[in-house]
Write a structure and sequence with these properties.
8 helices, 185 residues, globular, mainly alpha, Rna Polymerase Sigma Factor, Chain: A
C-alpha cells in the first residue's frame, strides 16, 4: 500500500478550496520531477518545459477528480504520463535529441573519464529514444523517477507482471541499441 503524504493532502485540499499559494507549493515540489519525466519522454528541453506547464494546468483543473485516499504524486505522474504520450502521438516522427542528457553521478575523474561518461550518457539517451513509448514510459518512471512497481501500476493501469515485463524488454532493447552503437558500459 502506498503511503499518503499528509503535507501533499493538505496542499491539495487547500488548492481545491481556491488557495493559489498551496498550488504554487505543489508546483514547487513537483516541477523538477515532472519536467524530468516530460524531458525523458519528449526528448526536447523546450517542449518539456511547455509540457510541464500544461501538465500543471491540467492537474489544477482536474484536481477535484483526485481520489484523496491515494497518493497524490502517483496521480500527478499519471496526468503527466498521459499528457506526454498524447503529445508523442500527435507529433510523429520523433524529434531528434538535443544535448541534454540524463544525470549520471558525476565524479572528478579527469577529462578522459569525463568524456567517456558524457559519451555513455549520450549513447544511453539515444538508445532510450529508440524505445516504443510504452517501454520508454515505464523505464523513465522506474529508473529516472525511482518509482516502485506499484506506483507504476497505478500510473499506467498495468499489472505488476506487465510492468516487470516491459522493464525487462526495455532494458534488453537499450542494451541492444547500445551494442549496435558500439557503446561500452
Amino acid at each position: 500500500m502506498t503511503e499518503i503524504n499528509s503535507e501533499e493532502l493538505t496542499l491539495v485540499r487547500a488548492t481545491i478550496r481556491g488557495d493559489q499559494i498551496a498550488f504554487q507549493r505543489i508546483v514547487e515540489l513537483y516541477q523538477g520531477p515532472i519536467f524530468n519525466l516530460a524531458y525523458r519522454m519528449l526528448h526536447d528541453g523546450h517542449e518539456a518545459e511547455d509540457a510541464a506547464q500544461e501538465i500543471f494546468i491540467r492537474a489544477y483543473t482536474k484536481l477535484e477528480t483526485f481520489d484523496q485516499s491515494r497518493k497524490f504524486s502517483t496521480w500527478l505522474f499519471s496526468v503527466a504520463s498521459n499528457y506526454c504520450i498524447d503529445r508523442l502521438r500527435r507529433r510523429r516522427p520523433i524529434v531528434p535529441l538535443d544535448d541534454l542528457a540524463f544525470a549520471l553521478p558525476s565524479t572528478d575523474d579527469g577529462p578522459e573519464r569525463s568524456a567517456l561518461r558524457s559519451e555513455l550518457r549520450d549513447a544511453v539517451q539515444r538508445a532510450l529514444a529508440t524505445l516504443p513509448d510504452h517501454y520508454r514510459l515505464v523505464a523513465v518512471l522506474r529508473y529516472w523517477n525511482d518509482l516502485s512497481y506499484q506506483e507504476i501500476e497505478n500510473i499506467t493501469g498495468l499489472s505488476e507482471s506487465a510492468v516487470k515485463t516491459r522493464l525487462h524488454r526495455a532494458r534488453n532493447m537499450v542494451a541492444a541499441a547500445l551494442d549496435k552503437q558500439g557503446a561500452e558500459l
